[in-house]
């Protein structure tokens, strides 16, 4: 009791004291401590003692202690006082100014740091620079110091590498496989050599017999041939003689003709040729007449001379020919002998080959032949002895004599001609000279006399010839005029194509080229207007997105307010709603789970346990998962780090599950697009970090598993459509066996044979591959199986290659990105290597599982039998080898015969894989654009808090490797991963919750809008200048002065454009949108103004570094040429952009309408809820007669001003004693008994607070104000202890004021 007396003595307010039961029975022990704290503050104010300091951070408690304390407070229903505001609360109670809180050491440190932030940052920058320079200098010193040791280290490194290489070679040599192969090869070689040597020994042993046989055969053949030749010579003697005479006659005739040609050739001198060139016509006639006259005079002598010359030449030629024949007779004989020998050898070799095959027959034939020959000789000799015959050869002797006489005569004639040859040659030369001079001198004199006439005649002849040729050409041109026109058109087309090819290929396009092709941009006015429309649409989209963001922020605020309203008036109705939604048991579980999460401050506890920090964390998690969803590089890098650190299987599976949950398994267009972008980033990162293509092929990244799960629903439909027919045909086929192992076939045949006979087979069962093939039946069946296997494999390949168009886009997109990344990383690799990497995903993970287990993909309705599964296994092996693109080796000898088919099918399969990868990008497929995230509402994800915290932990662990400031900001604001807690908390966090996604870093402004506008206007003005003032280059066109003729040309161009495009004519742009983009209409300008604008825009582009005057503004010409090249593509792209913008505007309009409806529904809900709560108070309350409230109500009824929802009157002293009223300016607590406070409500959610002063018996209204329930709830959400009214004149305890209002106006 002495303590209570002391407390009352020092003036501690009663609201801070505690009851004895609170201390002895521990009913409210926190209030005892709160009283001691308040007493210390009061004594410190009086200067009697020191104040108890703030113990935050000085004491450490375990989680178990905190949980037990929290549980005890919860069980006892005691609320924990706010110890931080005890000084302020005490000052309010005793009506004194609150003391200034002494600045703590942490606050002082933070204040000093904030005041000196700039100098600290500068000092840190200088320190970092000094440390970097110092580290670089140290590094350079170390490098220079270690330079002498580098060669030694390199030598040692080379030694280590060489030793490792030698160890690898030794390990490879230790493998007995290659050694066995070499040994087998050598053994085969030794066996073959041994067999060959045995064969040669057999041939050597029979050599003598063969030689004798050959000799005898040659003798027989030579004798037969001799007899045939002899008989032929006897029968053809007369013919040979006639042939020789004919040959000699033919030779003589040819010699005579050659001599005649030699005598008939005219000898023409160079002088005569020159004379003939001057006057060919006249001289030719005179020459002919003169020659005839001369010839008539010398005919007898010439004829005699020619006869003698012919005789001499003929005799000489005949003699030389006979001499040559005599000289080469031996050679001809030898040639004939060699030919006969060759033919005999050839026939002999053929005969020997035949004799080898029929040696016994030859021996018998030889015996028969010898006998026949002996008999024939005997008969010939006997007949010769019997017959007496006289042979005469007089005719032959005469022929030989005649020939000898003829040859002697020929020799004599030849000698005579050779003797007189010099004289004959001299006579001929003199005769030729006389004849030539006789012809030359008259012609020379005539030409000299007739030179002018010849010149005129030549001129006339040339003129006539030229006119004749010209007329012929004109007639030919007129007759072929159509062909000429066609050729000209073809030439012009070829020239135009060549110029256009230069335009499309070259980069330095000239002004002349632009001028020639400027007609291709005749409709560029409409193109520019389309670009203006696109820019307008883009800006409209930006504005609409900003409006939607503002509306979304408003909706979020309304969400908070509604949650506050619901929290403030939570009643039994909420439990009934939960029962109707979840059921009786689940509602209880849900409530228990929410209470557990709320007790630990979990941000996912639910809206009913709203807290400012928890709300903030909840928003941060929404932003975090939105960032992970839209920025695939974070998850791709996270996968790389998890795989590199060999994370646990549980962590990996959790990450995969969270990613699939985050993207909704790709069932929505936006989520599927973002998931494919994640796969694209992961594929490129994996290939970029790979050292070789083999690493890419053999790798197993984490995204592959996610991709397989993503495509599994679509995979079932695809493989069922592509493979169901061929698999069912294989399954339903009778006695189809694709077993390709001869050993297995051999054993199966033995088993069948034993089953049929009932006795064991005598054949061995344990045989090798080659031994099994020696069996004829096994070999035949093996060949049939291979043929069937090849046929069925071809059927599967055909079914797959024809199903490309039905293949889901997701798997084709991953194949495309794999191919693009491989070509960028390994540009020199062949296409077959690229397809091997594509097959890693497409065949092994997508197609092969459906072939091996078709029942799991609904391809077949029932489980397959064992033979069919074996057949599918064989087909899968074939397809796998075709996918690898290589033939079967010695490790699979049973498949070696089908290597030709594998090689052919591999090319077809490789082409198909490239066709699968030939698909458009994801942006074109899903019509994605930069406003996709702003127009497509992100769907909420259902995820458990434990999964959220696991992902948070992984991101925090690998934050340094993710390299992004936005992610770091969010993780820093989250302030660490929440505590795991006990099993009960983990069970509560395992339930899935709905997590909406929001974008914290939304930025939809187009930063290149101004630059695009500059390019558009510059190109437009330059084209106008080139139409009017074309020149050698653009600078020259810009520098030319503008004349009146140029203005008239420009007016003509505008008139023609206006006539052609009347429907597109519009007034000059004056709207804010066009002025923002500065796309003025040049049609309203003069040519001088157009030129000035062109120069201005070119200078602006030059300032921004886009073009340069050094190259004559070549950049703008290249840009125009680019428009010419890609005109159609630009139109299509602009049309797609326009459609995308229009679609975006439609979506944004829908979202805006949805937000407005949400705002309207929220306002209606709030008003309806508050009206329901205010109207549902039930029966009218009883008012004690003759009380202040009784008289107040009667006065209001008399005045007819009774509020709709009631009015309540209290004294300020009553509110002050209850703790509701804290203070009123200009009034002390002693005067509160003279002041009344009235609370009334005439509108839903709006409460009127009035203060009346009753001093001196006169009632005056001091102040009044309208208070909204929403404002009170927001202030409570912001953890404000007091709430000022009347412009700060009065202060109320916020929580107690809300309690009073709820008590009087709400259920």
UniProtKB/TrEMBL annotation:
InterPro entries named among the record's database cross-references: CH_dom_sf (IPR036872), IQ_motif_EF-hand-BS (IPR000048), RasGAP_C (IPR000593), RasGAP_dom (IPR001936), Rho_GTPase_activation_prot (IPR008936)
GO biological process: mitotic actomyosin contractile ring assembly actin filament organization
Pfam families linked to this entry: IQ, RasGAP, RasGAP_C
Superkingdom of origin: Eukaryota
GO cellular component, one term: mitotic actomyosin contractile ring
Gene Ontology molecular function: any one: GTPase activator activity
Gene3D superfamilies in the record: Calponin-like domain, GTPase Activation - p120gap, domain 1
Chain ranges of the Ras-GAP domain: 670-884
UniProt name for this protein: Ras-GAP domain-containing protein
Organism: Hermanssonia centrifuga
Organism classification: Eukaryota, Fungi, Dikarya, Basidiomycota, Agaricomycotina
